Amino acid sequence: MSKKGKIKKVVLAYSGGLDTSIILRWLKEEYNCEVVTFTADLGQGEEIEPARKKAEMMGVKDIFIEDLREEFVRDYVFPMFRANTLYEGVYLLGTSIARPLIAKRQIEIAKAVGADAVCHGATGKGNDQVRFELGYYALKPDIKVIAPWREWDLNSRTKLIEYAEAHQIPVTMDKRGEAPYSMDANLLHISYEGKALEDPWVQADEEMFRRTVAPEKAPNEAEYIEVEFERGDAVAVNGEKLTPAALLTKLNELGGKHGIGRLDLVENRYVGMKSRGVYETPGGTVLLAAHRGMESITLDSGSSHLKDDLMPRYAELIYNGYWWSPERKMIQALIDASQENVSGTVRLKLFKGSVSVVGRKSANSIYSAAHVTFEEDAVYDQHDAEGFIKLHALRLRLLKNAKY
Predict the structure, then answer these.
(1) CA 120, CA 352: separation in Å to the nearest integer?
(2) Quick one: pLDDT band at residue 9, thresholds 50, 70, 90?
(3) What Cα–Cα distance (Å) separates residue 219 from each residue in 205, 208, 222, 350, 355?
(4) Where are the domains of the chain?
(5) Are residues 185 and 273 in contact, defined by beta-carbon separation less than 8 angstroms?
(6) Under a CB-based contact definition with an 8 Å cutoff, are residues 379 and 370 in contact?
């Protein structure tokens, strides 16, 4: 059934790569609509200006190319790290946390140019389609969404290349040779999926990694660094004040140099299937260790344990695409309130794939050497512990004496 006339103008999340270039042409043919492209620089490490030339070559008039690195780290990565967020105990959510920002800008652009639809290039098997579209609908409930992978019959790499060649869309040689994995990159991480990685028994090829050296090839001497925090956010490395994006870039360099931040994970996708992903998150891994170290002397046990209880739920919300949901915002408000006194400096040791906290100090520290010393003290009466233990043991003693 022809879709012509149903959509007048669409904002496409456009990388300039093969898939989104094909989508751009497909939209014009299938929907006979005007296409506006939006390309975001989130720190993927590649030039994004070539996307402009490709879009121009394909007849696009409205082209948006934006550097969103600072906003990405300040308003998305840092709030997430205040919660020490890990999905399924290990994944730092590098892909997940980028999607809300892209969705937000697409909707803002759609409003600005009078578009009635938005389009993404996520497949019908993955999480990103959910993340993008939950964001779209949360921010503009009446927006129309086009998801080509759920509509077209170009369901193989061969068909995509044939379509590209038939429509004079440039195909780079590496695509012709078919890369052994797909990649998603931003300032927080690089993810690798598919092809050679689909067998969870097969080890990832060392040549695949781009941001980290192999731990075995990392320097033979440890490097010590200091990360300074203000109200839960990192603000300086080794005494140098840095913007959020510059700080994460610096930690990426330091972590990558020492082989820190590699993860090989079989995860549970929101759509129901399991998938194997390999991730490089050097700066994020260092930042997580530093933040937990800072909290260890500035948060009381009740606050710290409550945060740990909420973290898996918070991580799941982000992973599943609910960044704009009221429940995520509610948890965020609680987390942010907990960070009021999380300020100070953490010293870390970087060595052959590991990051360790080896020192922490803060003007807001609630650590008391006077209370925990093994030497004689005048602030703690050890006899008080007897009553404390007996009260807490009462329930257990009664249960033991009960007859069932």
Answers:
(1) 39
(2) very high
(3) 21, 20, 7, 10, 14
(4) 9-68+97-178, 185-361, 369-401
(5) no
(6) yes
Task: Dig out the tokens for 58 from the structure.
Answer: 């394909």
Query: Is the model's pLDDT at 5 over the cut of 80?
Result: no
pLDDT at residue 1, rounded to an integer: 43
Q: What is the rounded distance in angstroms from the CA atom of residue 134 to the CA atom of residue 124?
A: 14
9-68+97-178: what fold? Rossmann fold (3.40.50)
pLDDT tens-digit map of 330-365: 999 999 999 999 999 999 999 999 999 999 999 999
Q: What tens digit of pLDDT does each residue of 178-190 get?
A: 556 788 999 999 9
Tell me yes or no: is domain 185-361 CATH 3.90.1260.10.
yes
In 3-state terms, what secondary structure has residue 372?
helix
Which amino acid would we find at residue 69? R
Radius of gyration in angstroms for the set of CA atoms belonging to the chain, rounded to a whole number: 25
Q: Which pLDDT band holds residue 66 (cuts at 50, 70, 90)?
A: very high
Taking phi over 0 as left and psi of -120 to 50 as alpha, with beta for the rest, 238 belongs to left
Token pair of 180 as six digits: 């052994």
CA distances from 377 to 139, 215, 367, 374 (A): 58, 45, 15, 8
Longest CA–CA separation in the chain, Å: 85
CA distance 315 to 328: 9
Residue 354 structure tokens: 């590991």
Q: What is the DSSP string of 14-60?
A: --SSHHHHHHHHHHHHHH--EEEEEEEESS-SS--HHHHHHHHHTT-
CA-closest candidate to residue 102, choices 217, 170, 11: 11
Tokens describing residue 60:
């696009």
Q: How far apart are CA 118 and CA 70, in angstroms?
A: 24
Structure tokens at 340: 């009021």
Tell me phi and psi for residue 390, to 5 degrees. -65, -40
Catalytic residues, which ones?
19, 99, 128, 182
3-state DSSP assignment of residue 297: helix
Question: β-pairing, 233-237 with 223-230?
Answer: antiparallel
Tokens of 370: 């006077």
Count of residues for the chain? 404
Show Cβ contacts of residue 105 under 8 Å, excluding neighbours closer than 6 positions: 38, 40, 64, 66, 68
Interatomic CA distance for residues 172 and 160, integer angstroms: 13
